[in-house]
Amino acid sequence: MARFIAFYLPQFHPTKENDEWWGNGFTEWTNVVKAKKLFPGHNQPNIPADLGFYDLRLEETRVAQAEMAKKYGVEGFCYWHYWFGNGKRLLEKPFNDVLSSGKPDFPFCLAWANHSWAKKQFDKNGTSELLCKQEYPGVQDYINHFNELLPAFKDDRYMKVNGKILFFIYTTKDFPDVHSFISLWRDLAKENGLNDFYFVTRDADSRSKEKNIDFGFDSIYNDDVFNIHHHLGLIKKAGYWFMREILKFPTILPYKKATKYMVMDECRDNKVIPVVAPNWDHSPRSGGKAILLHNPHPKYFYRLIKNTMSIVENKTEEEQLVMIKSWNEWGEGNYLEPDIKFGKGNLEALKKAIDESNNE
Q1: Tell me: the pLDDT tens digits for 327-338?
Q2: How confident is the model over 115-126, as pLDDT tens digits?
Q3: What pLDDT, in 10s, does the model give residues 304-333?
Q4: 238 lies in a domain?
């Protein structure tokens, strides 16, 4: 049976850094509510429904999210984790509270978002100015990083694959000694009474799968949400580039068609984890430079889930992983949580597909 795990963004609470960069009280909700319709039929702003404009400092919110996710078939959350080197962390409070409180009693794993932050990532008028640089200081920092997360790795809620700790590393780009890092962490796991790691990295369209396996990764996740344009042959056309970069008009791809390219046959490989997206619209952050999936609907998400389950069904039980991108990336228009347009439609589509599979 497929194991659905949802990426989880821990951004929705004020932080000192966000106050300094964007103004007091800034969270991702700030961008969400400012989003504009960019063309007729564009569904913006996207407004949360059942859970509202929550604050992740509140235990009640985190518990409500987990209860909802569990009810509709999500096995666990994959929390984005930020370690920039030399002990620098950001957005760590929500997960630290989950760890220290023991609540919610819901499975989790971690994904290291090991990339620098620049203004242009979060603001349509932003520049390439670095907000926080990702660094790799070396062995001692890697040991410190491991020790920082050791309580999480030892937590009974931590998700495993074949008894190994499931840990994602977003990118190998600019990671000069990723192979040494992986080897070191495997040794540290054994020294601390842990079985081993099941390391996964992002590979947009599997073209670097063998290289990543050689680095020491157990698997890749096939994050094709960002490369659908490669298959549809749209964004490479000069007209689309001109409209997006010069006229500031977004690149619009139909969600119904895009779902056909999210999960490819290569995801039948045990070493390739499929990624499914219920929606995608980056315009709250990037305005007219956005790439967006137009007219998403739960009925198309349901078909995507059904197809994905058929693709992973012959894998070993532990490795039937399917990543949902995402639980709550509202600033990217990429979320499974209920909104005012479809309500719990995407959650219900997920549960319907799972229930049907159980009854077959």
Answers
A1: 999 999 999 999
A2: 999 876 666 666
A3: 999 999 999 999 999 999 999 999 999 999
A4: no
pLDDT band at 243 (very low <50, low <70, confident <90, very high): low
CATH number of the domain enclosing 75: 3.20.20.80
Domain membership of residue 245 (yes or no) is no
How many independent structural domains does the chain possess? 1
Strands 280-281 and 291-294: antiparallel
Instruction: Using the structure block, give the residue that is written with the tokens 């504009």.
Output: 36
The residues that bridge with 7 in the sheet, in sequence order, are: 78
Residue tagged 């977004």 (tokens):
250
Q: Note down the domain range covering 268.
A: 3-233+254-285+297-359
Domain membership of residue 321 (yes or no) is yes
H helices of 124-206, where? Answer: 139-153, 178-191
Report whether 273 contacts 325 (CB < 8 A): no
Q: Is the pTM of this model over 0.85?
A: yes
Residue 241 lies in a domain: no
How far apart are the C-alpha atoms of 11 and 26, rounded to whole Å?
10
Handedness of CA 300, 303, 305, 307 (dihedral sign): negative
Distance of CA 194 to the CA centre of its chain: 26
* Helix or strand run (H / E) with residue 358: helix 345-359
Q: Kindly state the tokens that stand for 10.
A: 């821990």
Percentages of the chain per state (helix, strand, coil), in multiples of 5: 40, 20, 40
